[in-house]
From TrEMBL, chain A:
It comes from Shimia litoralis. GO terms for cellular component: plasma membrane. InterPro entries: ABC_transp_permease, LivM-like. It is a multi-pass membrane protein. This is Branched-chain amino acid ABC transporter permease. The chain crosses the membrane at residues 12-29, 49-71, 91-116, 123-144, 201-221, 248-268, 288-313, 325-348, 354-375. It is found in: Cell membrane. It comes from the Bacteria. One of its GO terms (molecular function) is branched-chain amino acid transmembrane transporter activity. Keywords: Cell membrane, Membrane, Transmembrane, Transmembrane helix.
UniProtKB/TrEMBL annotation, chain B:
This is ABC transporter substrate-binding protein. Keywords: Amino-acid transport, Signal, Transport. The keyword Transport applies. Belongs to the leucine-binding protein family. Residues 45-406 form the Leucine-binding protein domain. Residues 1-35 form the signal peptide. GO terms for biological process: amino acid transport.
UniProtKB/TrEMBL annotation, chain C:
This is Branched-chain amino acid ABC transporter permease. GO terms for cellular component: plasma membrane. Keywords: Amino-acid transport, Cell membrane, Membrane, Transmembrane, Transmembrane helix, Transport. It is found in: Cell membrane. It comes from Shimia litoralis. The lineage of its organism: Bacteria, Pseudomonadati, Pseudomonadota, Alphaproteobacteria, Rhodobacterales. It comes from the Bacteria.
Amino acid sequence: MLGLNKKDTSLLVIVAALVMFAPFILNPFPSDSGLAQFNAGYPDLMQRFVIFGIFAIGFNILFGLTGYLSFGHAAFLGVGSYSAVWMFKLLSMNVIPAIALAIVVSGLFAVLIGFVSLRRSGIYFSILTLAFAQMSFNLAYSVLTPITNGETGLQLTLNDPRILGESATADGSIPVTSLFGLEMRSTYEMVVGPWAFQFNAGYYLCGIIMLLAFYLSIRIFRSPFGMMLRAIKSNQTRLNYTGLNPRPYALAAFVISGMYAGLAGGLMASMDPLAGAERMQWTASGEVVLMTILGGTGTLIGPVLGAGFIKYFENIFSKINDTVLHNWFSFMPDGLEDFVVFLIHPFIGKGWHLTLGILFMLVVTFLPGGLVEGGQRISRMVKKKSDDDTNAKTTPAE
Amino acid sequence: MSKTNMTRRGVLKTGAVASAGVALPTIFTASSAAAYTNEPTGPNVTLGFNVPQTGPYADEGADELRAYELAVEHLNGGGDGGMMNTFSSKALQGNGIMGKKVDFVTGDTQTKSDAARASAKSMIEKDGAVMITGGSSSGVAIAVQGLCQEAGVIFMAGLTHSNDTTGKDKKANGFRHFFNGYMSGAALAPVLKNLYGTDRNAYHLTADYTWGWTQEESIAAATEALGWNTVNKVRTPLAATDFSSYIAPVLNSGADVLVLNHYGGNMVNSLTNAVQFGLREKIVNGKQFEIVVPLYSRLMAKGAGENVKGIHGSTNWHWSLQDDASKAFVKSFGTKYGFPPSQAAHTVYCQTLLYADACERAGTHNPCGVAEALEGFEFDGLGNGKTLYRAEDHQCFKDVLVVRGKENPTSEFDLLEVVEVTPASQVTYAPDHPMFAGGALGTCNAG
Amino acid sequence: MDAIILQILNGLDKGSAYALIALGLTLIFGTLGVVNFAHGALFMIGAFCAVTLSKILNLSFETVDPTQTDFLGNPLKVKTPYVMEWFGAETGAAIIDWAVPLAILFSIPIMIGIGFIMERGLIKHFYKREHADQILVTFGLAIVLQEVVKYFFGANPIPTGAPDVFKGSFDFGVMLGFDPNAIIYPYWRLVYFAFSAIIIGGVFAFLQFTTFGMVVRAGMADRETVGLLGINIDKRFTIMFGIAAAVAGLAGVMYAPINSPNYHMGMDFLVLSFVVVVVGGMGSLPGAVLAGFLLGVLESFASMNEIKSLIPGIDQIIIYVVAIIILLTRPRGLMGRKGVMEE
């Protein structure tokens, strides 16, 4: 189907189903139960899952296939966000031109940085991309404030021209982002018993775009171009000897992955029209590297899993506080309750970084292929178990 | 967390649906189904406390959280009532807000606009928070204020000192109790004049981002009005940790006052470096060299250790104040946590009380009603003397403290001493003052 | 002229910190082939060794002084450090005053111990893994170390002063024939520079003139052959990791009086020290040291007002601009070896 083999088609279908039914899947706990804290099915976080998923998918095209480790990919995300917000300020609140401009500008930016950085390989390449990204961040924070609004971040105001739209709505507010009139923030709420599921227009737009991006990345992985990129990773010298110049291919991969990052940035701005400089900081670049490695470098689905994993911890674990803990463990006797809360306390709320750090170490130590390998092991175990079962049946007792 | 959706706009639908036992989708955009965003319909009302829990301001954020928890306890009738007893408005009964018990959710801003907005959004979308408050930097405050305006909830700013928060980036749904750069300048100027005279040459080192710039502008304007000459204004990168190469040129610049427009870690390091370079012992133009830190924070002053001794600055509030309200607050905070509250803790405690009181007086949680009740509200008994929440820009006007690093501290908390309380009238400015121009409140948004 | 000399001094001083951290990083790169993102955290732990020792020395018992009151109006509890009680007020005060230099002794065993545990417990398992995995695991470790420090010491910087004799500043200009007060430089920064020069010299001498160093250098060049010669290179590499950790730790201890330590100071230095290592060239110890000082001096020059007014914002990006220029003109940095981390 769609030019994919059977395995890839089923992967795409599974991902599509996950994306479409995410509001159900991510909200497993009734909203009046204590475990509702772990629900992630609200629009903002679901949007973040898919947007960072796109970012990581794009990063994986470069890193997973060619092995070039860019440490400055957040710069493209930032540039994409700025372009999109400027489009909202100057043109209209429709997300299409904003996203288009975000992709184009970040693509051009990637051509520029890629052309220079790809003259070197290995860690020298990483440091070059890092240097460009850090320069962008530092300048955006300070001297470029007229364009970026510095520390505060680029925001919409009531005085923006918006030539194809309106500067302010009739009731004097800033208009909201929309897709030809469909407001990105509009949400269906479906209430089933104690559950409340939220279906957000913006999320579904991001979700569909992510599926397209995912499909495109499968096609790239399976194409001759993808083979070429893998060849760069495995042995660049040999490639040179065969008379092929690998650099145009690497540059193409770099630009494609930069455009993915720009797309993610444009979507972020479309969901929430603000662009801050810290999106370009090295920590942000590092985050996408971590997402990709954590999920499984070079695998199709890994980066998306990694992105979800990190964003989940950032948004869910940081919100658990002692009061919540006391609620959970209120069934215990007082002394024991306090003791349990005391034990867990360092790992939640302000300690969510600690939990994340520990999980990084555990995952990479015990699952060398990232989360994807974890999934594979589980499925193999299940398979093996069912094999054992059939064996047990067929082997007669002695 | 038993409240979540029971208190939300879904509750009526829940009843209908639960009895029918089938899924019944209901459409709503932000404005159709409920009277306003997250209208609390159950027995509880949820407030969102969004403070930095990781990153350089984590300790300040932790202190803010303590104050929030204390405020919630007092609102719900627990503890000794703290400043509720001294507050001039007596609308609060100690039975929550309008009889609804106050619940809260917490989040981590990471001192990044993006993370702060994500956290605030989850409070609004997932937890049904009807008011968001907190923060320890202006960038975050402005970003979250914009979000709350869009979403239709009230934002009660925490520690934010930039003129822009209630200047060019002001919003109808946003309110600030903390003072700002202009007020620091206006409060410091007369004190500096008395101490150091009118013939001085000032050298500014400024953190290179919006807050730093507005403070630099404010302080330079105030000191130039005294007759001081501004020798140079140098911008330093936010990420700088070693300020030696910015301090060294001060030595031979002919300046005799160094103004450090830095906050947090920047301030600790630049002040430490300035003292290392012997600036305080220098005599320039026949005058003793002086250092001024316009925005002081006790928590940060602690990081600079004995380098703060004798250095002047301004602050929003300090625990050593002797009015009844401050004493009551210090007593209830100190008894619960064992140390005195910081100015960040004080401002967020006040903001929580002010919000609750405004709800009571307005008789609703509707942000438009609350905003109306806060606008032009005059009150007393929250530790800063008579205070006005000005309607034009949602900024509080109150006395500003000029403080000095104490020479002989008696304890680890006793770092600053109040030199002067500059009356509110001296720090008040016109709403259309050029430093605050360029923005508009817009209209209040109830979602 | 005096301004330029001052900035050179500043640059050398900043460069000392960069060079020390980069030196340790390169040792680990070169010997073990591991990208250690936790190296900044080791620097931070070093600084907190100084903080810890000064806290230990300040451990106090409380006596109630009824003449004074605390913030709640209760009688004030006055703290007296045990050290002062045991050694007498004056000697005790002197010991507390010298906490940072004493912390050098205190930190060496701790840092070497941490280095050993890190290498044996964790890094060892990652020698054969991809660099990406090494980055993830050491980054995770860095976060954990940093959060543990934050848990015990809080997020705010903690002032840790130099001994009184080194406070204040020194009129450097007079020595060079300038007017008095033209070039004033803080004592402790001079101490820091001298200290790092000694450490750097020590490490080089150790590698150059001892048999142990010779084996390690041989191992850096060709690990397999050295292994085939029947030399237990692993054990020596563990020791090198301990030494690298100690170098980073010492850089941190001595840095504490310059800027009050906080839990994220390691991350602040991490990226910069990677840039330094790469600009110096992968696998080259002299390159790392040279690049550290070079970038330090250039950074200081860039923050001079004359240059800032010429190119606004140059001080924000100078390090990265220099890094890009060097990497584009010299493919392997200043003194890099061919084939190290190039694929």
